[in-house]
Amino acid sequence: MSDFPLKRIAIYCRVSTDEQAKEGVSLEEQRTRLQAYCRAMGWTVEIVEFIDDGYSAKNLNRPALNSLLQQIKNGDIAKLMVTKLDRLSRRLLDLLQLIELFHQYSVSFISTSESFDTDTPSGRLTLQVLGAVAEFERERIRERVFDNMLHAAKTGKWLTQHPYGYRLDEKKLVIFEPEAEIVKRIFHMFVNEGLGYYSIAKKLNEEGIPSRQNKEWSLRSVKLMLANPVYIGTLAWNRIDSSKKKRESKDENEWIVIPNAHPAIIDQDTWDIVQERMNKPQVPSRAKTSPHILGGLLKCGKCGASMSIDWSGWPKRHRVYRCSAYKNKGTCDSKPYRADDVETWFKKGIMELIDSIDTTCHEVTIQKVQKENKEKIEQKMKHAKERYSRQVEAYTAGLIELNDLAKEKEKMEQSILEAQKRMETNDSSHAYSELETKLNTQEMTILESFAILPIEEAKARLRLIVDKVVLHGEENLELVIAI
């Protein structure tokens, strides 16, 4: 039951941030017009105001509007007034849903500028027609903006705020060396030191190196930088769908991708390694920062579950690695192993790793590398063809000229030719040579790092060559190489 003896008249006013500076749409102007209309109609019931200051009409998620709708559902509102239809919403679907709600609760909707009242059939018809026109005009504006931005993107012009590591010079990106050095360092820490997003952010913050606008680095800011193709000179536009309440990434087929649009800070090979590593399942932060060498790496040879540190013995306690399936579920009968023993076996295994690689292992490694390289090459060829198909559609729609289409075809053919050459050179000897070099150059570095580096950094380096360690029994460790 309503707390008020008479239903009230609601007036709703809204301005978006862009409209606040424009003449004729201010909140005060809307309020004055609506109150004058009520006086002219001789309405004497209480008038309650609902004001959304600085909110767009692209959706209905506005505080004052939400409060208004709640009062309508409570039965407190008899009429709702706005100066213009688009004050309430610019989307026809939202408008029709609201009108249905008003009708359900016997609330009439009045727009003073369009001169209609939804209490009448002609008013409801007019409202729907005006709503359709408003949405059509909005889509036309969006389409024109998209076309203009598409043209700018294709000419290599940067359309938004410059990214970290660059500055804008006549809408073109140029490298800003002080920040570019930090970008290179972040990629180096991720690729060559094996540090994760959190560890990189922590290290930069500890050194007092600011990110954009003198803010601190975060896990998210590091991750976004490592995934941003701008650093290899590629302009990738239309990646995010911001029309929805929650911003989502669009399908790659919808991206506008222009390689070599501006100077690159990171080379292509480093970029490829980073993207491949980012697409792998991430190791939990707790495992990375564990003070125990094999924390997050060691697996049970009986059931495959992770083995974590526990404590045993009394009164002199010592560390042990225990199967988590045994510890938490009782589903494995693996016994605990002294941590010092296991870590000693592991260090010995690292030293013997290269000598233990026999011919069979060579073949398995080679086949795996060849398969992964082939898949990458085929994916690049596919993307080149998809980009060209999008350009054909753009030419058909009159968005680009014939010479632009010809250039894109030339790029596609060049990409396919380079991919085919890489396919031909994807031989086994090269694959194994890379692996052997990798192991030889990092074997001693990793063992030495346990003595001189913080455990977090030492383990990060370890993960560069070891994917996991499987404990099968006394002095029986299986080291799975990270290829």
Polypeptide structure, described:
By secondary structure, this protein is α/β, with parallel strands linked by helices. It folds into 4 domains: 8-141, Resolvase, N-terminal catalytic domain (Rossmann fold, 3-Layer(aba) Sandwich), CATH 3.40.50; 155-278, Hect, E3 ligase catalytic domain fold; 293-358 and 435-481, no CATH class; 370-427. It is 50% helix and 16% strand. It contains 16 helices and 17 strands. The protein has helices spanning 27-41, 63-73, 85-88, 92-104, 121-154, 177-191, 197-206, 219-226, 268-278, 285-289, 324-328, 339-356, 359-396, 402-424, 428-452, 455-462, and strands at 8-15, 47-53, 77-82, 108-111, 116-117, 166-169, 172-175, 235-237, 240-241, 248-249, 256-258, 298-300, 307-312, 318-323, 337-338, 466-473, 476-481. The strands form 6 sheets. Strands 2-1-3-4-5 form a 5-stranded mixed sheet, with helices on both faces. The longest helix is centred in the C-terminal third of the chain and has 38 residues, at 359-396. InterPro entries: DNA_bind_recomb_sf, DNA_bind_recombinase_dom, Recombinase_CS, Resolv_N, Resolvase-like_N_sf, SSR_resolvase, Zn_ribbon_recom_dom. Keywords: Coiled coil, DNA integration, DNA recombination, DNA-binding. Residues 163-284 form the Recombinase domain. Residues 366-422 form a coiled coil. The active site is at 16 (o-(5'-phospho-dna)-serine intermediate).
